[in-house]
Design goal:
Layout: E1 2-6, E2 9-15, E3 21-24, E4 47-48, H1 50-57, H2 64-73, E5 97-101, H3 105-110, E6 114-118, H4 120-128, E7 154-159, E8 165-169, E9 176-179, H5 189-202, E10 210-215, E11 218-224, E12 238-240, H6 241-244, H7 261-269, H8 273-293, E13 304-307, E14 313-315, H9 348-351, H10 354-364, H11 368-391, H12 400-474
Antiparallel strand pairs: 1-2, 1-5, 2-3, 3-4, 6-8, 7-8, 7-9, 9-11, 10-11, 12-13, 13-14
Length: 475
């Protein structure tokens, strides 16, 4: 049996097998209790099978080499990857959830935790060996571990007040994610992701603070975790949109049977009334920004919700966002394939049309005039926001010519998208006016018909009166 801890409380018990079973603890069942998922609400009902299994699989790394290594290192006998949650990696997952064997629960809850210092050189060596060895090279990891989804080499660490790094254990959470480029095919990937997220903040789109550093000749992106409090002492529960919609992690792209914009919009609208509209606005802006910078990896696992008290949840800040323009090489921009369909297809050839914004608005359930106006606003500012982010890059080695080309491409694309959005906005305004005018014409037509009807009725009444008068005269 596996204990499930949420926000430091024993929330549920999990039976790990091919069809796992989740049962909430009676002591955890209150109105303010945060569920593991909005699809697995707190209550007396036990949940089993694929809804539970898919949710748990989305916590684990996507790279099967990493999974195999972790099974070997932690001597997990079962080939089922879910049993890794019974190892130290289950103690620091995305959100506020932790896992441990049932018999270890008292000691885990009693531990306040501690830290094992780690140097910058150790961090760079750790990331260089990923995924061959996704654990610290020294092999010293008593009660330390973390689980992060995705394919990119990354580690989760804790940063102290003085900037020193450590591997936390026990109840002490990690505070930052450190990422390296996936391979030599993506040079300066950390720089470009930093530019994208920094520019998003300048556009008014929430995104976590990031920095790019050079540790022992390795370029590393540092991302402050948004699922941790600013003091770094508490976890905030979250789940990604594959978990929200009950999908397997292999179904994160819409063209691979993953959630669509409409699917996610419905889930966001199901939140409380005071947050539903805000959630949709944030989702709209994140998707529009992805369109502007050609972020082709905006799949369902890169959108999440943060849980609050009494069933309230909000869309998480933008994360894992990066332009594909620096890596398209000789392929036309129009052939870049997006993770979700905003228009009639997935590539930018079908997205870069004014009709797309009307279709996009329909999937969001928003007014096309509002959506296109916001698209104009973002497109008009994206070049300046990107330029400002580039101007504030740290003094580390990177390809300055490539970054300058990227700035120019964003400027060109921003202008193209602005023209598309302005056309869409003009069409939406005209459609509203036509509709309003059509209603007025219809009202006028109805009034005329009523008048004609009244006139006919009056004539009939007049004829009856004349006939009656004649009868009276003859009598």
């Amino acid at each position: 049996m596996t204990a499930v801890i949420i926000n430091g409380e024993h929330a549920a018990t999990l039976t790990l097998n091919k069809k796992p079973v989740l049962a909430y603890e009676p002591s955890y069942q209150s109105a303010d209790a945060i569920p593991l998922s909005i699809n697995l609400p707190v209550g007396n009902t036990a949940f089993a099978g694929s809804p539970v299994r898919n949710w748990l699989l989305n916590l684990l790394p996507d790279d099967q080499d990493v999974i195999r290594f972790l099974r070997s290192e932690y001597e997990v006998p079962s080939i089922d990857p879910l049993h890794l949650l019974d190892t130290p990696i289950g103690l620091d997952c995305a959100g506020a959830v932790q896992f441990c064997p049932d018999d270890q629960l008292p000691s885990v809850l009693a531990q306040q935790g501690g830290e094992i210092p780690v140097s910058e050189n150790e961090i760079s060596e750790w990331l260089r060996q990923y995924p061959i060895r996704p654990l610290p090279p020294d092999g010293e990891y008593p009660d330390t571990g973390f689980s992060l989804a995705g394919m990119q080499p990354k580690v989760a660490l804790r940063q102290g007040a003085g900037g020193a790094w450590s591997r936390p254990w026990g109840q002490l959470p990690t505070t930052h994610i450190l990422k390296a480029a996936r391979s030599d095919h993506f040079p300066d990937e950390c720089v470009f992701e930093h530019i994208a997220l920094s520019a998003a903040v300048r556009l008014g789109i929430a995104a976590p603070p990031t920095d790019v550093v050079d540790f022992d000749g390795m370029q590393i992106l540092i991302v402050e975790r948004y699922d941790r409090t600013s003091e770094g002492l508490h976890r905030i529960h979250q789940e990604d949109m594959c978990q929200v919609t009950g999908r397997h992690p292999n179904e994160k792209y819409e063209y691979d049977r993953g959630p669509s914009i409409a699917d996610i919009s419905r889930a966001l609208r199901a939140s409380r009334a005071e947050t539903a509209d805000t959630n949709i606005d944030r989702f709209r802006d994140q998707l529009l920004y992805g369109w502007l910078i050609a972020n082709n990896d905006g799949h369902a696992k890169n959108y999440s919700i943060l849980h609050g008290a009494a069933g309230q949840y909000v869309l998480a800040p933008l994360y894992d966002a990066c332009s594909w323009l620096p890596y398209r090489r000789n392929r036309p921009v129009s052939k870049i394939k997006m993770a979700m369909s905003m228009g009639t297809g997935f590539n930018l050839r079908t997205c870069d049309k004014f009709e797309m914004l009307e279709q996009f608005a329909e999937r969001l359930g928003q007014n096309p005039e509002v959506v296109s106006a916001r698209a104009v606003e973002l497109a008009d500012s994206v070049a300046a926001a990107t330029q400002d982010a580039i101007a504030k890059l740290p003094t580390i080695p990177y390809d300055e010519e490539a970054v300058e080309r990227h700035r120019q491409e964003i400027e060109i694309r921003g202008e193209q998208c602005r023209q598309i959005a302005e056309t869409a906005h003009a069409q939406a305004v005209q459609a509203r006016r036509n509709k309003s005018s059509g209603i007025q014409r219809k009202d006028a037509s109805n009034r005329s018909a009523r008048c004609q009807h009244v006139g006919v009725r009056s004539r009939k009444q007049c004829i009856r009166r004349q006939h009656t008068d004649k009868q009276h005269r003859y009598q």
